[in-house]
Structures are given as C-alpha cells and as structure tokens.
Amino acid sequence: MIDKAQRLSYTQQAYALLQKLSLTEKVFMMSGNKKAKELLAEMQANAEKHYNYRPYPAGGLPEKNIPAMNFVDGPRGVVCDTGQTTCFPVSMLRGASFDTELEEKIGHAIGLETKAYGGNTFAGVCINLPYNPGWGRSQETYGEESFHLGKMGSALVTGVQAEAVIACVKHYAFNSMECSRFKVAIKMDKRTEREVFLPHFKDCVDAGAGSIMSAYNAYQGVPCGHSDYLLNQVLKKEWDFDGFVMSDFFWGIRDTVAAANGGQDIEMCTTEWFGNKLVEAVRNGQVLEETIDQATLRILRTLLAFEAERSKVPADQTVVGSKKHRQLALQSAREGITLLKNKEQVLPLVANRIRKIVVFGHLADKELTGDQGSSAVRPAYVITPLQGIANAFPKAEVIQYDGQDLEYAKQLATKADATIFVVGYNYDDEGEFVSKSEETNYTGARGGDRVNGLGLHADEVQLIKAVGPVNQNSTVVLVGGNTIIMTEWEAKVSAILMAYYPGMEGGTALGEIIAGQVNPSGKIPYVIPYAEADLPQVNWQTDQQVYDYYHGYAKLEKEGVVPLRPYGYGLSYTTFDISMVTFFKTEDQVKAQAIIKNTGNREGTEVVQLYVGFTNSKIDRPVKLLRGFQRVSLAPGAEKTIEISCLIDKLKWFNPELNEWQLEQMTYEMYLGTSAAKQDLMVGEITL
C-alpha cells in the first residue's frame, strides 16, 4: 500500500520536474488527451465495442519521463472491452456481504487487471449514498449507511493501491440521481452534509485514496467540479487530501476559470475547457500560475509515487479473468446473496427429492451483471440463473417459462416439485443515464432512475400472485440494485432471495444456495419498507432537490415506522445465539464483546452488528446508527468470542454554529445483534 507519507516523499522530485515545465506543458498534464468531438467519433467508429474499451489517458510527457494518468472505470471490475475481464458482482451485493477482507482482495484483483490493461488509475470506488433507492446507479455503491460505505470503500482503496494502482473515489459529492444529474442543484443543511453525505468520502481519503472524481450535479448552486468549498476548503485543506481531483467525463467542467480556481486538477476525459483556454486564462490574469503549479504538483507527485512501485512488478496479462479472480467473484456472490424469507425452511431444496423445477420469468436466462453504462464489464462468460439452477440439480428436469399465460403457468407449477420466479430489473430499468438521443447516449442502454416506483413490473406481480400459491415450494429471486418493495406479493411465496446483480458467477452461487451447497449469509445494506411513502421522496426530473437529514432505516426509526425488512437483515440455513454481551470503553473507542454460537446443524456465517443509540441527546439525532460489524463463520455447535470496536470520534455530531465536531457527554445506548430491528438486538449502555 502506497501511503500518504510515501507519496509526500516524492514532493521534492515532483517540484524539480515542475520547474522544468512550460505553462503549456503544465496545463497539458491537467487535461484529457482528446477533444470531445474526436472521442465521440472514435466511439461511434468502434460502436461494436464498449465506449470504455481501453484506458483513457490524461497528460503524460514521455520526453521528460513523466507518465500519463491512464484511467480505467469500474466498480465491477476493469472496464476494458476484451471479453476476458473478471466481472465481479455489483457493489451493492458486495456491500451485503459486510466483508471488508473480501472487498480488499477484490481490490487486489482489480488492481492487477488494471495494470495488465495498461491502466494506472482505477475509478471504481463509488461510495455515493442513495438518498432514495430509486437512484438508477445505486447498484454501484455499497448501501444506504455512511459508516458502512466508508468501511467498504476504504477496503477497496486499500486493495487496489496495494497493487500500485491509484484508486479514484467518486462521485464527490451528493450524486444520487441519474435523470437530472447534469442539471440538478442539491441543497441541504450543514449537519446533513457533514454527518450523512461526506463522512464516507473522508474515510476513503483517510485510507489513502490517491484521487477523487467530482460529480456532475451542483451543490448549493455551484457545480461540484467548480466548488471551491468542496474541493479546496473541505477536501484539500480540512481533510488534508494530497492527491489529485479529476472531473467526471465530458460535462464535469463547464467553465475554465471557475473549474481551475475551484480546485479541479484534471479535466477528463477530453479537453474542452482546460488546454489552450486555461493557458489563456492564466496569461490574462484570471487564473494564477500558482494555481496551475499546485494542481500539476499534485498530479506529478501522485503519478511518480505509484509509478515507482509499479515498475518493480511488471504487468501480468495472465491475471485477466484468471481462475483465481473468477473464484473471488464466485465467493463474493455466495456471500452477498441474501435470504429474505424462508417459510417452514422451504430452502434449501433437497436435491434427491426434486425431479422437476419450473423457473419462471424472462430474466432467468439473461446475463444479470447490471448496468451497461460506464461500469459495464465484458467477461468471457456469464452463468445465468437458469444455468446455475440446472447445474445445481443435475438429476432434475429444469424448464423455463416466461409466465405470459397465467393459466399455463399454473399448470406447470402444479406438476413441478418446486417453482422459482426470477424477477426484477435490468439495465433498461435502472442504470447510468446519459441521454435519450442516439447521438449522445454512448452507453447503449436506457438506464436512468426508477421513475415508475420501487416495485416489480405489473406482469411480474401478477405472475407471483397467481402462480406462487399453487406450489408450496415456491421461491422468488429478486434481481436489482437496491430496495424492491415486496408488500403486495410477499405472502404468496414461501421463500425470497435477493440476488442483486451477482456477476459472472452469480448463477452458480444462486444455484448452490437454493440447493443448500452454500449457506446464505448476506444482509441487506438498506431497509425495505412496507410502502414507498416511508422513504424520502425525490423528483427525478428536476433542477432543484433538497436532501433532508433522515433517510433509510434512520428515517423509519425516527418516525416510529416498522419496516417489512430491517437494515442488516438476512436469514441463514442455521441458527445462532449471541450471549455474554458486554459493552465498555477505552481512551478512544467504545467496544462490544460477546460469545456467538452456531446452534444449528450446518456450518454458517453470521454478520454481527454494533449500533450506538442517541435517545439521550439534547439535539435532534437518530435513534441509533450502525457503528461496527463483523462476519463470523462457525461449524455446527462451535462458538467464538468476538469483539467489535468503534472510534469515539464516530459518535460525534457536527455543530454548524461553531463549525466543528463535538462529543456529547451523555449515556449512549449500545446495541449488538443481527439486524437493526429491536428484536434482533441486545442492549446496554456506555456513559461518555
């Protein structure tokens, strides 16, 4: 891992190089290497390829031994169009694993594949917080909880940068809408900004991230890519960020002077506003050359530090899509797929008793890897749900029917030993939104936010309600990037699995879980309410949006609303008991210690969660917030003593009047258990 101290040690070398550069050369280091029209023409000429089919360069002066910043996208893996890249599950599924160790391993794999493709910067650490789960791109982030986002994002940063690849964290900040992302101006109060939407970005900066990507949207009336407050004051001065800031592609900068003075270091991925326009702005006094020097120094220092480490280990082409990396993708899918209902332990299906399975739904034989925008990865193969189920039940007849004729579907269900409904979304329902115009929609998918609501399609609801009750061994497999409302049909089936978008080996993991070869251990990293009205309301087509302090499970708890499924919820095929719970404090941490025991008859993994409560606060604060978690794997009958800790700094609130973080001297409730639901938690207290 190339830490901050190591990067800063290259300051003098970078400064010496800087002194040898002309103004034009320095600005060149701050600019993408093509004009937008040239790049769009290239994309159209290579329409059969993904638009991100090779790394995008910015800067680079070979004659002076200065490398370019070679950018590749993510976060499901390296976005290069070779048809070989490892396609990991989407970040939301990885968030459901609550496995930071696995996420760091995935980061290592992505770092290695980035190097193999000639990239040195991976822009796949997406940690935006979905204010409303209808955000089409929320599949690219880890969940609704800031603390969890910070932990998972930091793990990915650590893994990627351990392979001498710069991790770029995006989209800074408040990017939680697709359809209006180019025009919307976000507003919120200072406490919401500091306590809800920014902490996870600071966590990744503290973890050593070398780059930050600014967002398209405006904040408090100023585009994020021009924001002196966000880029200069908060990120670079307050958080002491030593790396460089790049804009989001094409439209991330809209004014030369405002962007340069606002703290933008690199215009990506083309040059429209920097380049000659920025040189002219310096010469006419609108931008100080000192500003250019500071930006170029950040770029040079970061590139030199990482290049020195990269040169020690040559790129290895054989790692791309390697067996080891595919196994990581499979492990991730196994850990993240979440069991939401299992009435009378219908699952797992006993293979030797199953002779015929009917799989309903048009998604069953589709490659369910997620959005087809900038995060789309092209693997050598994808195991579909239908393939995975058939592989897991080799002696059974597995047939698929889309379910259009409900009477025929009922007949099929009556004659089957089990029915499985694969329903939900694809890249046309939710994902990155660019434009409806064919000329500018370079992603090739419709995408956008879920403007029609958070439920299933009407025909899927009808199918489940009509056919689900026909066979008691009925399972719904949900496909999607975030909360799917289940209220209307949840009682009609015996089991429900949330598969998210499970990556290239997702079908394999799904089949294994249904057959009981793998015990599910995922936990939903968001709340599922009974009604959409319980969540914050968003106008997806707007130029103004206010984000309030409360969202997700914190909002429901504050308002006394019981969810259909709580944050952190997920079932297992075994049972666990948590006992001997104690809470205590050290000089800088609060801790929980307990014994967890597997009380069932099969091996399993539980995610133990630590929450801290604030009901004694004299100010408006959440009922409780997640402040720690740990995965624990146990054999039947085995037990383990665990300890989960949280920095006391993470209990502070932001005082907007004094513009500082403060710790309340009071008694805090402490909760330890298996979800955010009261009945799943053991309670204690600590006084600080």
From TrEMBL:
One GO MF term attached to the UniProt entry: beta-glucosidase activity
Alphabetized UniProt keyword annotations: Glycosidase, Hydrolase
UniProt-listed Enzyme Commission number(s): 3.2.1.21
SUPFAM superfamilies (alphabetical): (Trans)glycosidases, Beta-D-glucan exohydrolase, C-terminal domain
Broadest EC class assigned to this enzyme: hydrolase
Keyword Nucleotide-binding attached: no
SMART domains reported in the protein's UniProt record: Fn3_like
Residue stretches making up the Fibronectin type III-like domain: 606-676
Top-level taxonomic group: Bacteria
Classification via InterPro entries: Cellulose_deg_GH3, Fn3-like, GH, Glyco_hydro_3_C, Glyco_hydro_3_C_sf, Glyco_hydro_3_N, Glyco_hydro_3_N_sf, Ig-like_fold
GO biological process, one term: glucan catabolic process
Family that this chain belongs to: Belongs to the glycosyl hydrolase 3 family.
Identification of the protein by name: Beta-glucosidase
